[in-house]
């Protein structure tokens, strides 16, 4: 990260289940989380303000290692959860959404 003025990205992280070709994977998700990661990857200095699961599950470790993640602790079950199916033709379908703590 650079010593430039930090950019504060406010938003959420989510738990995404990605289904494709008969397999299923759990991934860290969330547009705001990905935006903060992209800013840092491009040479910026982003900070991320959003709910952070405690304890932090393994699939969030990579993201957390590359940004400064601030925000209130929550249970993993409180984060939004999305199930996304990728079809052979490249089409993606959101088949399940649970908005969790962001619903309140």
Which short descriptors sum up this protein?
4-stranded mixed β-sheet; globular; alpha/beta; 3-stranded parallel β-sheet; 40% strand
Largest sheet: 4 strands, mixed
Radius of gyration: 15 Å
Residue share in helix: 10-25%
The number of helical runs is: 2
Strand order of the largest sheet: 3-2-8-9
Low-confidence stretches: none
Our measurement of the CA-to-CA distance between the termini, rounded to an integer number of angstroms, reads: 34 Å
| Strand segment tally | 9
Mean pLDDT: 93
Strand residue percentage? 35-45%
Q: What pattern of helices and strands is seen along the backbone?
A: EEEHEEHEEEE
Topology:
Blueprint lengths: L6 E4 L3 E7 L2 E7 L1 H11 L4 E4 L2 E2 L4 H9 L1 E3 L2 E2 L6 E6 L5 E7 L6
Parallel strand pairs: 1-4, 2-8, 4-6, 5-7
Antiparallel strand pairs: 2-3, 8-9
């Amino acid at each position: 990260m650079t010593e430039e003025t930090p950019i504060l990205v406010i938003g959420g992280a989510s738990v995404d289940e990605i289904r494709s070709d008969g397999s299923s994977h759990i991934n860290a998700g969330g547009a705001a989380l990905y935006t903060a990661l992209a800013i840092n990857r491009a040479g910026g200095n982003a900070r991320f303000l959003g709910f952070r699961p405690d304890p932090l599950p393994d699939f969030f470790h990579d993201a957390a290692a590359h940004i400064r993640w601030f925000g209130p602790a929550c249970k993993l079950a409180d984060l939004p959860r999305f199930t996304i199916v990728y079809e052979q033709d490249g089409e993606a379908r959101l088949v399940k959404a649970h908005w969790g703590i962001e619903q309140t």
